[in-house]
Design goal:
heterodimer
Chain lengths: ~120, ~120
């Protein structure tokens, strides 16, 4: 069974600091990769996704992620965080070929707090 | 266009009772998935429906069941509730379905179930 590991459970940063959240998955086949964000009191929203092609993907609000197949990783980055980025971030993976469907396996989440 | 709508948003039940949660997907979306979110276990896949057929199921006991109607609306049912069933139940819909891995899920706000 596939699994997703997020190494940082809680991260505290000051505004304008750079962010990198780690995500590793354990499935050897073709995968689709996602980062979702859950702002306080709001529902899960898609931040960015990778299906194929350029391994560096850009999402909303200045976030980007890099897929490194050899490392089974899909780390999330942002050069300069804002207070409004305070949220919980989830990495998720689904199988990229027929049979995977919409079954997402999520990591445990990283709670990011950005201080003014 | 309207997002994924889940009802009820909050409910309280007692052990042994059963509960039915409803999900209306985004118009045109034919796939509906359900997830359970708890502080301890995180986000876990329950099941996925497409064209009224369950095509994926997670590792949950048979007390958890679901169905999808011809208009793509979905319900999930939990019978004989246990304290551990207290959670946020999330529904997600997607446009693509059978045979495609390139799906993007849009999540609803969830139904928060408390079991006393």
């Amino acid at each position: 069974a596939q699994s997703v590991s997020q190494h940082n459970h809680h991260v505290i940063l000051s505004e304008a600091a750079s962010l990198e959240l780690g995500c590793n998955y354990s499935y050897g086949g073709t995968v689709n990769l996602f980062w979702y964000v859950q702002y306080p009191g709001q529902h899960l929203q898609l931040l960015l996704k990778y299906f194929s092609g350029d391994p560096l993907v850009k999402g909303i609000k200045g976030f980007e992620a890099e897929f490194i197949k050899s490392k089974f990783s899909f780390n999330l980055r942002k050069p300069s965080v804002q207070w409004s980025d305070t949220a919980e971030y989830f990495c998720a993976v689904s199988r990229g070929v027929t049979g995977g469907g919409n079954k997402l396996t999520f990591g445990t989440g990283t709670q990011l707090k950005v201080e003014l | 266009k309207a997002g994924v709508t889940q009802t009820p948003r909050y409910l309280i039940k007692t052990r042994g009772q059963q509960v039915t949660l409803s999900c209306s997907p985004i118009s045109g979306h034919r796939s509906v998935s359900w997830y359970q979110q708890t502080p301890g276990q995180g986000l876990q896949f329950l099941f996925e429906y497409f064209s009224e057929t369950q095509r994926n199921k997670g590792n949950f006991p048979g007390r958890f069941s679901g169905r999808q109607f011809s208009n793509s609306r979905s319900e999930m049912n939990v019978s004989t509730l246990e304290l551990g069933d207290s959670a946020l139940y999330l529904c997600a819909s997607s446009l693509l379905g059978q045979g495609s891995g390139a799906n993007v899920l849009t999540f609803g706000a969830g139904s928060r179930l408390t079991v006393l």
